[in-house]
Amino acid sequence: MKYLALIILLCNPFSLKADATQYRILHIKDNVYRFTADRHHSAFMVTDAGIFITDPISKDAASWLKQQLASRFKVPVRYMAYSHNHIDHTAGGQAFAQDGVTVIAHQLAADDLHMTKAPTALPDVTFTDKLTVTLADSQVQLSYYGTNNGRGNVAMRFMPANVLFVVDWIVVGRMPYKNLPGYDIQGMIQSTRALLAGPPFEIFVGGHAEIGKRADIEHYLSYLEALYAAVRDGMLEGKQLEQLQHEIKLPAYSGLRMYDEWLPLNVEGVYKTLVDSSYFNFRPDLQTTF
């Protein structure tokens, strides 16, 4: 499928370059669009009854998006849903919340935003498992698959376009970020398995990197599983971090962007998780020091 990219800077009213940040809007399918601010993406859905937006990303990004939505679609924003608690996706929510927009988040994300005094609008509506929002003849289905990246990270399915939006714990065409800050590697694997076991989707939109299909997510999951197994099994053999970083290569995934730069860091992230969260350093069956 070819996607209609609205990326002609300055000439196209959907796009511009402001300061050092490039903003653009991409039509995905039917009434679903992707909003990009540099390396961050969010998604939104336009209906006759109003607009459903996701992560505002930043104060400046939210301001730009608000102006574009008002000038292009002539219907108000009704809902804004945060994908999770991380501030590089949730900042700037005040730009929309001040107009009476209903703000939605998973309960864990909402708790974190409140307790950390995050510079964004706090949620009006929270949920713990699933939530469906209906606008005209369209729906957004929000689902929590457990711990994976950050707190309260949810998948959003836009229907009937059947576009799936997930931030951070699934990335298409690129390695997971550096040494996996904020990642629960076991939870990422389990959440991705659960998502793939659910209803089929047509198009995947991520909070970073590329647009993709089911096969792209299967490849990503396979990488996570191979990475985790390689680090775990190496540690069970008593190998230290530096040795694991030198030995683990996983060439089947060398086509992922940032493979050379981030593979050693990915190894470090899993290693530290197995020490910090799984207490490998306290295991009586391992005669080594991590």
Radius of gyration using CA atoms only: 20 Å
Q: What's the name of the CATH homologous superfamily of the largest domain?
A: Ribonuclease Z/Hydroxyacylglutathione hydrolase-like
Low-confidence stretches: 1-19
Number of folding domains? 2
Please state the overall shape, judged from the principal axes of the Cα atoms: elongated
Helix/strand-derived category reads: alpha+beta
What fraction, in percent, of the residue positions are helical?
25-40%
| DSSP helical segment count | 8
What's the story with the biggest beta sheet? 9 strands, mixed
Number of strand elements: 15
CATH fold annotation of the largest domain: Metallo-beta-lactamase, Chain A
Q: How far from one another are the termini?
A: 48 Å
Q: Which CATH class of the largest domain applies here?
A: Alpha Beta
Q: Average pLDDT, to the nearest integer?
A: 93
Strand content: 25-35%
Helix-strand sequence: EEEEEEHEHHEHEEEEEHEEHHH
InterPro entries: Metallo-B-lactamas
Organism: Arsukibacterium indicum
Protein name: MBL fold metallo-hydrolase
Pfam family, one: Lactamase_B
Would you give an account of this structure?
The protein has 290 residues and is an alpha+beta fold. It folds into 2 domains: 1-168, Metallo-beta-lactamase, Chain A (4-Layer Sandwich), CATH 3.60.15.10; 171-198 and 213-290, no CATH class. The protein has helices at residues 59-73, 87-90, 94-97, 107-115, 185-196, 214-236, 241-247, 259-276; strands at residues 4-6, 16-18, 21-29, 32-37, 40-47, 50-53, 77-81, 102-106, 125-127, 130-135, 138-144, 154-159, 163-166, 203-206, 211-212.
